[in-house]
Design a protein that fits this description.
Length: 221
């Protein structure tokens, strides 16, 4: 299991990280909101431990950015904010659970295991199109029953297109879904992901609708 720990208190982060690693978890640690947003774009995790008060932004902002990309990675908030309104705000923003500092590591581990179990038990519809199957629960893609290895960005691009079958998805919508914002990457980046998907899944799989964007199958305009 791979975890991301987002915590600016170095002593607490080291203690939590050591405890998790002793229990067999693999842990990446970042200490500010900007680093968290960046690493979550490029790396899939089984769960995120997220502090709310962070340098460079708020934990809630990191969480909102994650959910805006349709990323359902379980998030356990760890924070000193113990007011009911804070807990409600975190849960409403998309957190799966909330634990208040100071806490016992055993309780943290138990809550972490619980949110991961719940996420694995969620019913996520399998998306299908012309022999392609995308299973969000397992983050797995197959083409004619053969497993297809995709990068994180390729996977998210394909998922956004398959969720909107029959409709054109603009470059800006794809950027927003992949990165949580648009206009922040090089102009040909989305085209590169589309090219890689066509190479792996077939040239006819994704059509360029010139002047508008992309859609699954059919005839281009």
């Amino acid at each position: 299991m791979n975890l991301l720990l987002v915590e600016d208190d170095e002593m607490l982060a080291e203690a939590v990280r050591a405890g998790l690693e002793q229990n067999g978890w693999r842990v990446d640690w970042v200490a500010d909101a900007g680093a968290a947003r960046t690493i979550l774009v490029d790396h899939p995790y089984d769960a995120v431990l997220l502090d709310l008060g962070l340098p460079g932004g708020s934990g809630l902002g990191v969480l909102s950015n994650l959910r805006a990309r349709y990323d359902a990675t379980p998030v356990l908030i760890i924070t000193a904010r113990d007011k009911l309104t804070d807990r409600i705000g975190g849960l409403d923003a998309g957190a799966d659970d909330y634990i208040v500092k100071p806490f016992q590591l055993d309780e943290l581990f138990a809550r972490l295991r619980a949110v991961i179990r719940r996420s694995q038990g969620r019913v996520s519809p399998v998306l299908t199109f012309n022999g392609i199957k995308l299973d969000p629960a397992q983050r797995r893609v197959t083409h004619r029953d053969e497993s297809v290895a995709l990068s994180v960005h390729e996977y998210r691009t394909l998922m956004l297109l398959m969720e909107r079958q029959g409709r054109v998805v603009t470059r800006e919508q794809l950027e927003e879904g992949i990165y949580g914002s648009s206009g922040t990457i090089e102009s040909n980046t989305i085209a590169v992901y589309i090219h890689q998907l066509r190479r792996k899944l077939g040239e006819e799989t994704i059509v360029t609708v010139h002047g508008f964007g992309y859609r699954m199958g059919g005839n281009g305009a």
